[in-house]
Amino acid sequence: MKKKMVKRILACALAATMVVAMAGCGSSKDTKETSAKSGEESKKPASVSDIEINEAGVDATGHEGEEAPEGVQEGTTYNHWTNYDIPIYTPWMDNRAAVLSYQIYDNLLVKWRGDVNDIRCNIAESYEVSDDGLVWDFKLRDDVTFSDGSGLTAQDFIATWDVMETYQPRPFASVESYEAVSDYELKITLSAPNPTFIYELPTQNIYGVVSHKALEQYGPEDNRSAVGCGPYYVESYTTGEKFVLKAREDYWNKERAPHIETCEIDIIADENTAMMGLLNGELDCMNTVDIEVMNNLLDNGITLALIEDRENPFWLNCRTVDCLKDIKVREALCHMIDWDALSELVYDGLYPHPDSYFTGDEAPKYSEKYDYDPELGLKMLDEAGYKPEDIDFTILADPDFTDLEVALVSQFNEHGLTNIDTVTYDGATCYGMLKSGTYDCFPVHNGYDPTSPLTPFTMGLLEGGTQPCMFLKDADEAAYNEAVAIYDKVVSSTTTDEYFKNVTELENLVQEQCLALGGLQVIRGYAFSDKIRGAYVSPVSAEIQFSDLWVAED
Amino acid sequence: MAKYIIKRILMVPVLLLLIAMFVFFLLNLSEADPVLMMMPAEYSQEDYDEMAERFGLDKPKPVQFVNWVKSAVTGEFGTSYKSKAAVSDEVLYRIPVSLKLAGVTTLLMILIGVPMGVMCAVKQYSVYDNIVNIAAKFMGSIPGFWLGLMLILVFSVNLHWLPSFGMKSWKSWILPVFTFLLPYLANYLRQVRSAMLDCIRQDYVRTSRSKGQKESVVIFRDALKNALLPIITLTGGTFASMIGGAVMIEQVFAFPGIGYKVLEGINNRDMPVILACTIILALFTIGAQLIIDILYAVVDPRIRSSFAGKKKVKKEISTAGGTN
Amino acid sequence: MANTGKDGRKRMKKRGQMAEAWARMKTQPIAVVSLAVVAVLVLVAIFADLIVPYSKAITQVASDKLLPPGTAGHILGTDGFGRDMFARIIHGTRTALEIGLISAGASIVISTFLACLCATVGGWVDNLIMRFIDVVSCIPSLVMALAICAALGNGIPQLVFALFFTGLPMHTKMVRSVALGVAKMEYVESAVALGAKPGYIMMRHMIPNLASVIIINGTAQVSMNIMMGATLGFVGLGVKAPTPEWGTMLADGLSYMLRNQYMVLVPGLVLALAALFINSLGDSLRDALDPQLKGRA
After folding, report:
1. Residue C143 has pLDDT above 60, yes or no
2. Is residue A302 part of a domain?
3. A301: left (phi over 0), alpha (psi -120 to 50) or beta
4. Are the CB atoms for C136 and C168 separated by under 8 Å?
5. Rounded alpha-carbon distances, angstroms, from residue A411 to A164, A341, A500
6. 8 Å CB contact of A276 and B163
7. Chains linked to A by 3 or more Cβ pairs within 8 Å
8. How far is C204 from chain B (nearest CA, A)?
9. N or C: which end of chain B has fewer CB within 10 A?
10. B37 and A13 in contact by Cβ < 8 A?
11. How far is A201 from chain C (nearest CA, A)?
């Protein structure tokens, strides 16, 4: 008898637990709805697609025009988010370390407020370019100091670049020599006139400078060598946890002097945690490519700025997948993707579907080969002698954009191409697979250097290079050779006009012959806490100069 | 006795070597070429060879392993493929964080789990016992990463009581420890309960009761005292598994422990990091197990006496200890 | 834990033992409910295609995305791709059980075989197997599963292998300790003395006596493997998209937790409840199969 009672109570208890669990979840929903409402009251945009793309040189916090205070604001802190650790942060070590290197290193020239079209002198007081564009002569300021207090001379540049060249040879490909004419004069000689050189110069993780004394003492792979002359210095670094940067009171460039005293870069792997950190006021900035995270931030009354990132066409590897060698198959695949529907599905229509792989006014438009027409696509497959299920390859996915790949694969599957699937690896692994060519299809930008609008996609056409245009060689050797010939013309262009003409020709050839699957223009959302002002985010490369930031006073 | 302890300690390096060999073999099943991952966007064959030589990757796999063991013995776990920093610097800092997390959680687990488990055993089949039992089963069925994010949502975002990530103050420890504790506690208190039940059923408890002892004396002096041994084993085993079990918790709460690092290493296919972390985690597991087994042997008179006996008995006991 | 009962358990015919266990189980409502729920799960997994076509679980409809539960045609709503959550849960059951059952089944079969080998052959075979098990069991199981998945890549077979392998050491140790007890029983020893082959002893004497420990551990392992599969899905290792699976559904839903709670609640509850009932079933089975554990008080 007693046992039965117990069982009944037990059943009730179980039911009660369920109810409590459900109720608990329900109540948290209610609070969310009210907070969303209070967000709407202050006339914020209702959806992400209502926000306009933020222009370069405009404050992304939505307070453009407000005046920054003079000098360092005492006791202020700023918490920045990064999702990866940077164990060694000398400028040449990790090209993902821009978040840090833009604060602690400085350079001859600077992209003013992140705008590539506004390049100003920084360490260089002035510079001259010879008529043939080959010799660049920089006069340096004599008051530049490193964070350890020592003064900067041309010798520091020479020592830094000597190391840089061995770690990052590509930017130095067109540099024939560089020499220190005197303590405060530097001469760079190029092997060919390079219209893109001016855009590469202000890149901190390429041409940034460190103190040669520290470098000689500790070597290139030691954080004690990371003595820069930037507005901040690393006060402490805790592996896996955070960097603490302190503003330099004695910073030499008054126009770019830091305002916020302490900047923390917090390392948080999980994006959802970072988002909640921002909502809880522990972080002051986060960025995301995930539309849902943007929606959440917007719902909670947080101002969002949208920055244009790169476009990533899905390149098809003919080397690993035989059926892709047939240009008809590649064209058929192009016909089967409804990019607008994908954008609507995965990004609420936020990511536009551009009409070219390439950016800029000169970029050639897509031909009819890229029109959405699944019937035609299936017919073309049939004509080429393939059944839908013969098309068998795997799309390699970067965790940032996995949703797009999944949606894309599902679209193929719906048309009967059931053997196309996707696999996700971490960014580093994707990069490795990209270079070894051991993948079938991967969305990657066309090879433009993000920091320079004029660099052609060198990577794709050089032997030993990694990127997708190489596959043209396997599919159609003649077209590949033609592309290489045009490429050679591009890099030997002497004027900007000639350069653009050749680039357009090259782009057109690649677009018509490679037949990658096209892609979406990535839009990155930036969110800042209410107190922060002066966030100038550079488009595409997305760096932020902490020295521009300041805290609004109540 | 001393012979047994020495033998067990001497086994540790052998075990570690075998573990390293196993993990090394496992990671080499991956097709990805680590040298390629380290190369810049454009490179020549000479650059490639140079990089391979620098990291010793040009040598055959067995030679690579021997070289790794040689440097690991001196405390150097090689260079990370990803960051090119010394692995030991990155990993050693994280050991105390993981130990502290596991330690605090174990402490709480004992403080909550033992009384609750004993209560359940004493009042077997009572309403209390059944509710705790069901609740424990339910708690054990919630994925940690999900619970962690939900707790951050409630206590950081909605209530603003606690920080959501990192290790800023003692408050930062509350959510991770709680999330971490729950599934272990669920398992622990049920096992404490059954250990206690086993003792309550023993003859000497029955005898004590029949002699008219007070119930509290029977429970705490006779039953609990005898249940302590299995509870200690259980606690040690749980602590050992906690050190390596915090991967998701550390990931969700951005806690710079060793689990966070091993996940980072796995995501980057960074073999030296994975290898170093696994070896350190294994070392702690072995260490905890060793201490328990030795304690067990020292404390329990039945086992102590068995060491005077045949060799075969010994082996059985040590593996039985490892089972729990 | 379950290695009690090696002292003097009576040998019963398999059918008799099972029938007796079933009789005991029938009287326990929790056991019956758990068994019913698990049976429903298995039926759902088997007949998933009859309940709702697979295509519904993967067809994405942009206009239908993020519909709340209760919408006409979508009882549990739709996810961020406009896929029907109900269809995904149903077909996710199949994936989850497939992963849980195959991996746990494989660990049980292999570990039982290894354990019996240890117990019947002994000597260097026992030593070799146990040292290998020692090595593997020193690596934390989640770390090991992560490493295997990372090395072998994504996909159900790889995931099943990883889970199978991580479950192996614990079972082998447990089953072996019981098997050693069985091997020492008089009738087994006399069978050996009469010249019975190890294979015969294994099938005739070992397996029937190990049945209860196998079933109990196996059930617990199924729910553990489902949970671990979900955890691996959270970090992006495991099942390939767009295959529906509870863990990956839960992980995908996490970014929706502020605006569309059902996206995390539905798969979360299904996952937790499935694990709960499978665990309960395991406990009930233990009580039923091993009455010494329960009925002695």
Report:
1. yes
2. no
3. left
4. yes
5. 45, 10, 36
6. no
7. B, C
8. 24
9. N
10. no
11. 38
How far is it, in rounded angstroms, from Cα A523 to Cα A349?
A: 11
Touching check for A426 and chain B: CB below 8 Å?
yes
Q: Let me know: does B82 contact B268? Beta carbons within 8 Å.
A: yes
Nearest to A295 among C58, C153, C259 (CB): C259
CB distance from A166 to chain B under 8 Å? no
| Interface confidence (ipTM) of the complex | 0.82
Largest distance between two CA atoms of chain A: 104
The CATH number linked to A407 is 3.10.105.10
pTM of the entire predicted model:
0.84
Q: Which of A409, A333, A343, A316 is nearest to A372 (CA)?
A: A333
Interface test with C, best of A345, A347, A403 (most C CBs within 10 A): A345
Residue B245's Cβ-count burial label (10 Å; 0-12, 13-18, 19+) is: buried
Check the CA dihedral A217-A218-A223-A225 and report its sign: positive
Same domain, A325 and A236: no
Distance from CA of B9 to the nearest CA of C (A): 14
Sheet holding A304-311, edge to edge: A232-238, A242-247, A260-267, A73-82, A285-288, A521-528, A304-311
Residue A27 has pLDDT above 70, yes or no: no
Instruction: Report the gap between the CA of A214 and the closest CA in chain B (Å).
Output: 18
Q: Quote the number of domains for chain A.
A: 2
Q: Which two tokens stand for residue A539?
A: 């488009």
Residues 6+ apart with CB under 8 A from C213: C2, C3, C174, C175, C178
Residues A380 and A263 in one domain: no
Domain extents for chain C? 13-53+87-293
- Separation in Å, CA of B54 to nearest CA in chain A: 14
pLDDT tens digits, residue range C245-288? Answer: 888 888 888 888 888 888 888 888 898 889 889 988 888 888 78
Q: Looking at the structure, do residues A277 and A312 belong to the same domain, yes or no?
A: no
Considering only CA atoms, which of C265, C236, B149, B180 is closest in space to residue A279? B149
> In angstroms, how far apart are the furthest CA atoms of chain B?
88
Out of C29, C62, C154, name the one closest to residue A7 (CB): C29
Domain ranges of chain B: 9-67, 94-311
Please give the class, per CATH, of domain C13-53+87-293: mainly alpha
For the residues C77-101, what does the mean pLDDT come to? 90
pLDDT at A366: 87
Q: Which residue in A10, A32, A272 is closest to C255 by CB distance?
A: A272
Instruction: Enter the CATH code of domain B94-311.
Output: 1.10.3720.10
Question: Is residue A252 included in any domain, yes or no?
Answer: yes
Q: Is A293 on the interface with C (CB under 8 A)?
A: yes
Q: Give the span between the Cα atoms of A395 and B161, in whole angstroms.
A: 43
Chains in contact with B, where contact requires at least 3 CB pairs less than 8 Å apart: A, C
Residue contact A85–B83, C-beta within 8 A: yes
Residues A376 and A267 both lie in one domain: no
Q: Is A53 on the interface with B (CB under 8 A)?
A: no
3-state secondary structure of C205: helix
Q: How far is CA A142 from CA A136, A180, A232, A252, in A?
A: 19, 14, 19, 10
- pLDDT recorded at residue B315: 43
Helix H, strand E, coil C: the string for B77-91 is CCECCCCCCEHHHHH
pLDDT of the residue at B301: 63
Q: Are residues A515 and A545 in the same domain?
A: no
Contact C82/A11, CB-based, under 8 Å? no
Whole domain around residue A320: which residue ranges? 308-523
For all residues of chain B together, what is the average pLDDT? 82
Asked if residue A37 belongs to a domain, the reply is: no
Judged by CB atoms within 8 Å, which residues 257-276 of A form the interface with B?
266-270, 272-274, 276
User: A 348-407 residues with CB below 8 A of B?
Assistant: none
Please give the helix or strand (H or E) that residue A402 lies within, else none. Answer: helix A402-414
